[in-house]
Amino acid sequence: MTFKLKKLALATSVVLSAFMLQACNDADTAANQNQQQTAPVAKAEKVEMKSLETKVIYLDRRMLPPGAVLNVTLEDVSLADAPSTTITSESMDVAGAPPYPVTLDYDAAKIQDKHRYSLRATIKVGDELVMTSTTSIDPFATDAKQPIEIKLDRVAHQAPEETAATGLAGQPWELVTLAGETVKPGADGNMAFIQFDMDKKSAYGFSGCNNFQGTFETSNGTLTMGPAASTRKMCMDGMELEKAFLASVPTYASYVIVDNVLTVKDKQGKEVATFKTGN
Hints:
Blueprint: H1 2-38, E1 49-58, E2 68-76, E3 85-93, E4 100-107, E5 117-125, E6 128-133, E7 148-154, E8 173-178, E9 181-182, E10 193-197, E11 202-206, E12 211-219, E13 222-225, E14 229-230, H2 239-248, E15 254-258, E16 261-265, E17 271-276
Parallel strand pairs: 1-7
Antiparallel strand pairs: 1-4, 2-3, 2-5, 5-6, 6-7, 8-9, 8-10, 8-17, 10-11, 11-12, 12-13, 12-14, 15-16, 16-17
InterPro entries: DUF306_Meta_HslJ (IPR005184), HslJ-like_sf (IPR038670), Lipoprotein_YbaY-like (IPR053196), Pilotin (IPR039366)
Signal peptide: 1-23
Domain DUF306: 167-276
């Protein structure tokens, strides 16, 4: 009799343990489900679309070739030592005379108060750049009025039969202005200059006191250069000019040649320097 009671008690204990284990599992499951139900749901990023109305013009009276494509871009140009970031862009086939109205839709949430922005426009035929804007245009400036006018300049191309005087390479370019200021002669009365070697992709010249040399890349009106290396001579005159001249070289982004005058601009379209050649 005692043995049967012990077996009954053992069986009862096993059953109770099973019920308690099941209850714990059910409680854990319910807790997990409750956590899943009450977990915050990630909110989708807010998109606030706005529009910029632009009007693209050019003063060149020549007609555009067939297949011309206009591209207008809103860019973040806040970082001087890094490529611009495209916020939005719009392309369209163009024919006939300007103006060309273009509407740019952009996400206002991507526009930050302390950043700088600029509108840029180009016209290409295939991969060839025909026209480009050369002036920085802030569409969010307090005095900006829509439609915002973007002026294009025709890109100079050097044909094989053209003389060296009409192209970038071959002749020395004497520095005339730097940051809008007229340049005076440097050491020994010599003018600063730069010369481009297209075969070696190297540029060299005189910066006011020392000689310098660097590399460059150019294509369809663009011009980029790395920091220039120079000799280390000390001069009584020309050192201030040299410092400013060499510091400006890495900011080159585009160029245009008109009547033997080379104008170099930065990526915001601001004039950096002008040069002239007597050839």
